[in-house]
Structures are given as structure tokens and as C-alpha cells.
Amino acid sequence: MTKAGKSALEEQLKQLIRESVFEDDLIIDEDSHLVNDLGLDSMGYVDLIVKIELSIGIVCSSQSIKSVETFCELIKLISKELEHE
Amino acid sequence: MSKEAIRESGQYLDQVPINMPQMCLHGLSENWLFKYLGAKHWDMLSGGLKTTSSQLQNQDGQRLYASFVRIRMESNHSLFSFQENDSLALRAQMQRYGNDMYFSNCELRSKQDASNVIHAQLMTVFSIRESENNQKLLRSQSSAEASEIPAAGKMPALGMEYRKIKMNKLHNLQLGDLDFELNDAVVHEREYILNPYYDVNGVGLIYFAAYPAINDFCESQYFNQQHPDGRWEADYSSAARDILYYANCDPSDVIVYRLNQVEQLDNGLVKMVSSLSRKSDGALMARLFTIKKPRNKS
Question: What is the predicted ipTM?
Fold first, then answer.
């Protein structure tokens, strides 16, 4: 994935997380913990999985997403899935 | 006897007579209604997953249990308006959000008076039990493919509002054209000792349909104390109810009922906000928003 592509993906994922936790101004950095820092609860994870599927076209299992702890790990997971497409 | 439910163009249809098992006091039993709607929700869900409720498992082979998240019921009269020997025609549909959240929309219409209608929405997720402790239910997912159940493109409002309220980002909701504010004030508080023969379901959990019954029992104790010349339970019946479920409890626990707000409106309706909590650790089990109508105005 190109640098520009990665940056666009990061922004897209940040927006999806903001929508999932109802926080338009949420500051997200690479080390942000999805639960402790960003407030993603179990239903938030479900919401994020569906949003990723609908807007990025990647089908992630609940188990794979829930094994991810930080935003950085989420980018890696989705990037890897995109490369397998 | 209930006719066997049939599916027709994505709709689930059923017909059920109103006789003594469906009734309570002077009208339709809300406890029966919730059990019936819950059973139909699970019929649609297990049918869509091509399995039976007892066979539902996650990918690790663990048994999945039903966890009701929210139930909303609105009747255009009140449950007193449904009388013996009438019958109800059910029309219901289910949709899912992802593979984890299931939503059903139900309409129950009186055969004797087609204008007498109940609308209900139910939302469930799956849980697993890692021990016999009912305080530790964990969210899980079904291993079965849910492709027969239509997928929603965005989270239905029933789930969205629930999440926003739980995350403290929404502080009010609409029910029966009335605005309810979340309220933690305490107008009245009392303890309820669980009745395992009545409140506990077939898998040892407090039944979702028991929550409003427990609430109403405690509520009636309060109103009957305040107004000894009347019988609250016989004089008022639910016209609308919205229950947000947060937790279960062990049958040996005690439930603390709190009436957070009560308001008598000019048209005779009574609007209430209440909650149920576990005595053992104080955890909130449910918030209930209720509109009751007097019998003479049902």
C-alpha cells in the first residue's frame, strides 16, 4: 500500500471510529487503545465491523477485530486484509 | 390453540386467541405478551439461522443464550382494551445488524376491533456463560450463517438510542408521544425477593419478561400504600413501555426497585421512569419507561 493510500485508510478508519462512539472531535493517534482511550464497547465493535464492511468492503470476523487493541493494530489488520483482496 | 406460524414474503404471521393464559386482571397480560413476543423473536432468529435455540453455538462450540437488549411496546389504547375471546393477529419482521444484533418489528392487531393495535420492537444479542454466575454473561457471536435474515444498512434506531443512553450521550427518549428524561432521583425504593418459580427462565437466568412484572409489583405496592382506597394493578394498565436491559442476576440475589419519576398527566395517563438493580453489587439491571392508562379510559 502506498503512503498516500495508508494515510487515506487511516483517516477513513478514524472517521468510522468517531461515528461508532458518537464523538465527532475524538482525537485518535496510533497508540490509542480502542476500548480504554476511544470508548469502543462490545456493541461499538459490532458497529465498527459493519461500517468497515460497508465503507471499505472488508469483511472482518468479530474475533479478529476484538483481538486488536490499538488503532495502529487496527490499521495493520485492515491493510493486511486489503492486500489479500 | 395458536395456529402454526407461517412465513409470507419475509413476514412472520401468527394468530393467537385471548383466553385466560393470555390475560391478567382485566385485560391482556403484559407478562404473557412479552413472553409471546420473545418466543416469536427467537422463532424468527433460529429459523433464519437454520437451527434451534438449544443448538445455537459460537465458533468455540459454547451454547449461546438470548440476551434481550431493549423492548419497546406501544398500544394505541391500553392492555385493558384487549378482552377475553378476542384474538390477536401477529405480523412480524426481523432484520440484523452485522451477525451479532437482531431486531424484530411486531404488530399485534385485535380481530374484534382492527383499530386496537400493539406495536413492539425487540432487540437481542448473544451471550455465553463462563460459569454458573449470572452476573458474568459475555457477549458472543453465532457460528451459523445469518444470510436468510435481511441485513440493515445502518444500526436501527432502537439499538442506536440504547448505545447513546448507555454511553451517556443521550438523556431522553420518546415513548407514546411523550418525552421521557433519564432520571436517577428516588421517589420510592423497595426490595424484591425473586420468585424462582416465576422469575427464572429455563436456563437459570432472570427472564426478560420478569423485569416489567417485578417492576409493576413493586410499583403497585407503592401506589396502593399511597392510595389505600384503590387497587393500582386493577385500575391502571400499560399503554406503552420501553425497557433498556443492562444486566442479569443470580436467583439468590435481591432486586432493588427504584421509582425515579412519576407524573400524572391531565388526560389521566401516568408517566413513570424506574429502574431495577442488583442488591449484591448495586449494578443497574434495567431502566424502564412506562405509560399507564386508567381502566375507565382504556
Answer: 0.90
